[in-house]
Design goal:
Shape: elongated
Number of domains: 1
CATH topology: minor pseudopilin epsh fold
Number of strands: 8
Strand order of the largest sheet: 3-2-1-5
Distance between the termini: 92 Å
Structural class: alpha+beta
């Protein structure tokens, strides 16, 4: 039997993998899909930030009310810049976005300084959001029975600081009885 010799070209098996054109097309498709998905992802992030801060603020309002009832004395929640630690005084109406604190107080005007022993808890705000008291106040006080001292509904507006859309805005309302609730509303 004669020995047949094959040329090197016949022994080559096809190589697997992508060619340059396939790679460029794949990258283009991924870039287009990412461009379409990014606005939706940004919307979800803004919505989650608002929901998280709404829950934090509602828990602070509920804590203030519960502490007032439990301790049978007035408790206040106020705007405070908590970014650098525990503040010793309430901030102004612009500080709601920087954070807030719950503290034990008297029923008179807000104290100039608040001792560390009187502070129940502090929260750090999210500066990507805007939190505003509807009446421009920097505090909300609960009496010893857990009722809002304001005597009427008190509202706060929480929304993304930029690019608010659809129902990302929340209205947080504290009834005269002290109960707090939030409602999703269209951005304004």
């Amino acid at each position: 039997m004669p020995i047949r010799r094959h040329s090197a070209a016949l022994d080559r098996t096809p190589q697997g993998g992508f060619g340059l054109i396939e790679l460029v097309i794949t990258i283009a498709i991924v870039a287009i899909l990412a461009g379409l998905a990014f606005p939706s992802f940004a919307y979800v992030l803004r919505s989650n930030r608002v929901s998280t801060q709404t829950n934090d603020f509602l828990s602070a309002l509920n804590l203030a009310r519960n502490e007032a009832i439990t301790r049978s004395r007035p408790v206040t929640i106020c705007a405070a810049d908590t970014r650098t630690g525990t503040p010793s005084a309430c901030g102004d109406k612009e500080d709601w976005k920087h954070g807030w604190m719950v503290f034990l107080d008297t029923s008179g005007p807000l104290p100039a300084t608040i001792t560390a022993a009187d502070i129940v808890r502090t929260w750090v705000g999210n500066e990507s959001n805007s939190l505003v008291h509807a009446d421009g106040e920097s505090y909300l006080r609960f009496n010893a029975r857990g009722e809002s001292v304001a005597g009427a509904d008190v509202s706060f507006t929480l929304k993304p600081a930029e690019s608010c859309s659809n129902k990302q805005q929340r209205t947080i309302t504290v009834a005269p009885t002290g109960r707090a609730a939030s409602t999703a509303v269209d951005c304004s």
